[in-house]
């Protein structure tokens, strides 16, 4: 761990020396990367109109009424799991003809 840390810092120092030397000797070659970075930043911060989100679609009157009704219902009485209300489904469990025997259970259960 200590050796990797030492190697990392040696590489970072060499990179810093190379950047400083490059800036001092040929600072004009740095213009292209700086312009590209600035361009990416400006496009990220202020995207063109065709890439922005479009206007929201106005919901129909029927959909707006449903949303308003559900908001009124949820604001008036918040639902909780202890209300005692249950949904009733049209399904029921039908017991089979086999008797329940613990010995017949598969071994992987």
From TrEMBL:
Keywords: Membrane, Transmembrane, Transmembrane helix. Residues 97-109 have a biased composition (Basic and acidic residues). Residues 64-81 have a biased composition (Low complexity). Residues 50-109 are annotated as: Disordered. The chain crosses the membrane at residues 7-24, 30-46. It comes from the Bacteria. This is DUF2207 domain-containing protein. It comes from Paenibacillus physcomitrellae.
